[in-house]
Amino acid sequence: MAISIEKQQELSRLIEQASQARTQISSSCAQLHEKLDFVGRAKTSVSEEPMKWIGGSAAVGLATSFLFRPRKRHKEMAILAAIPRIRGLIWKLLVLVTKLIKPAAKIYATKLFKDHVHR
Questions:
Q1: Which domain holds residue 78?
Q2: What kind and span of H or E run contains 81?
Q3: Band (15; pLDDT cuts 50, 70, 90)
């Protein structure tokens, strides 16, 4: 069962080809992993160029503060705007009182019912 020289050469060529394919796949996988590693790239970028990142974050913060700044109102508008807040406060107090009184009213009603039944 000796293997012929042609088959040995073919086998060694296939082994070499498979080895090269494994090497190529490994390098491609490493490159892909490096491209997808956003956290690592961001850390590297921040450590290499911190002033750019500080300046950029300051600019974004400033722009955001201008975009979401509350608009100035006239005094009349401020008074009208306070009315819903007062109504909301009264409503919240009413709901709170209702939630506090409801269990006490149930207990009282139960007590009255038991007294009525036992008579």
A1: 72-119
A2: helix 75-118
A3: very high
Q: CB–CB of 112/104 below 8 Å?
A: no
Does this model's pTM top 0.85? My answer is: no
Residue 89 in this model has a pLDDT that exceeds 80:
no
C-alpha–C-alpha distance, residues 6 and 2, integer Å: 12
Q: Are residues 76 and 60 in the same domain?
A: no
Instruction: Tell me how many domains the chain contains.
Output: 2
List phi, psi (to 5°) of 4.
Answer: -70, 160
- Considering Cα of 16, then 18, then 19, then 20, what sign does the dihedral take? positive
- Report d(CA 103, CA 54) in Å as an integer: 57
Same domain, 65 and 77: no
Who's near 18: CB < 8 A, 6+ residues apart? none
